[in-house]
Amino acid sequence: MAPSQLPDLFDPVFTLQDLSVFYGDYEAVRGVNMRIAPQEITALIGPSGCGKSTVLRCLNRMNDLILDARVAGKVTYYTEDLYGESVDPIEVRRRIGMVFQKPNPFPKSVFDNIAYGPRINGQRRGLDEIVEEALHRAALWDEVKDKLKQNALALSGGQQQRLCIARAIAVKPDVILMDEPCSALDPIATTKIEDLMQVLSRDYTIVIVTHNMQQAARVSERTAFFTAEVDERGERHGRLVEFDSTARIFSNPADKRTEGYITGRFG
Ligand SMILES: Nc1ncnc2c1ncn2[C@@H]1O[C@H](COP(=O)(O)OP(=O)(O)OP(=O)(O)O)[C@@H](O)[C@H]1O
């Protein structure tokens, strides 16, 4: 999509205002402002340690689970303060699912992996349909329809990752966060996940952290480039340098640091 064809972000799913994240006294990410559009793929790229995963984890309060992590500034989900007192982090993580770098199916059957979330949510009926639909949506049904009772750990790495995507979908999320979902996969499995992401982005908002710039360029509509700035005391802080349409970031970035990174001259 050409830069000018991207819609303006009037109704973002997430609005990050002056977001900083601390681990103890260490400010890992400083002053991030950005808005994330619905039903698009937004990529977070940048050199190692610039805070991409930290920012991603703020979007479904996964950082709450890290001892010592503290978030400052504001994250708004539609119109709601995601860190507001009345917000239930468990419900947040149901609506905003996450897929990790390493496929992490439970050591259970394929069926029970997918049915796990709905069961926890009290669902007892219609599980067969839910499991089948989630597997269809994750482009895995044809490969596993005769293996629903088999242990999920017997699947290939790429199938396991699609199973994890199906597991995320089964609880009917609104957003899927992906933290380097293909880094443990071979090129064929990676292509399948990328194709799947494109299909899923018609129904879900997707935010992906990736080290692979070609992947960001292939799959995303918008790209955020982060870097780590070193302060006067020698401490590194993750900063958002530039956020724009992916077409512009990769063809005509506004900031020299972005250009240096995408042309491989730094990072
Ligand atoms: N649980 C943690 N406790 C303390 N410091 C952390 C923790 N997680 C991340 N950090 C630090 O925060 C900074 C940002 O890390 P983060 O993992 O978010 O960066 P990243 O850009 O995703 O890196 P990579 O591309 O290598 O995965 C780094 O300096 C890292 O060491």
TrEMBL record:
PANTHER family registered for this protein in UniProt: ABC TRANSPORTER I FAMILY MEMBER 17
Domain of life: Bacteria
Domain ABC transporter: 14-253
Gene3D superfamilies: P-loop containing nucleotide triphosphate hydrolases
GO biological process: phosphate ion transmembrane transport
GO molecular-function terms, A-Z: ATP binding; ATP hydrolysis activity; phosphate transmembrane transporter activity
Species in which this protein is naturally found: Nonomuraea solani
GO annotations of cellular component type: membrane
Keywords from the UniProt entry: ATP-binding, Nucleotide-binding, Translocase, Transport
Name used for this protein in its record: Phosphate transport system ATP-binding protein
Signal peptide: none
InterPro entries reported for this sequence: AAA+_ATPase, ABC_transporter-like_ATP-bd, ABC_transporter-like_CS, P-loop_NTPase, PstB-like
